[in-house]
Amino acid sequence: MPILSAAGYLDADLARRRAAVPAIDHTETWDWLERTAPSVDRHHDVGRTTALFDVAHVIASTRAERWALRLLRRRLVAWHLDA
């Protein structure tokens, strides 16, 4: 098993979870974020992370995780922006 960086692990975990969700991104927002990520600065990272907090419940692997992410999403965004 290859050793992954933290970013590599998160990308692989997110890809696994997205593949398990039968949802279609009609706006292609996620694809746009992935395409433009290498060409922009830290502001993109903040935007991407806050967007992920907002929709993370969709890719949750358990009902409890989905509930907690819905409940905490605004607080997670606020903590991230404060940091």
Helix content: 55-70%
| E-strand count | 0
Low-pLDDT parts are none
In percent, how much strand structure appears in the residues? under 5%
In one word, what is the shape?
Answer: globular
- Average pLDDT, all residues: 80
Give the distance, in angstroms, between the N- and C-terminal Cα atoms: 34 Å
Description:
- Helix content is 69%, strand content 0%.
- With 83 residues, the chain is mainly alpha-helical.
- It has a domain of 57 residues.
- Helix 3 packs antiparallel against helix 4.
Characteristic key phrases:
83 residues; globular; 4 helices
In short:
The protein is mainly alpha-helical and 83 residues long.
Produce the secondary structure layout.
Layout: H1 6-20, H2 29-36, H3 42-55, H4 63-82
Helix pairs in contact: 3-4
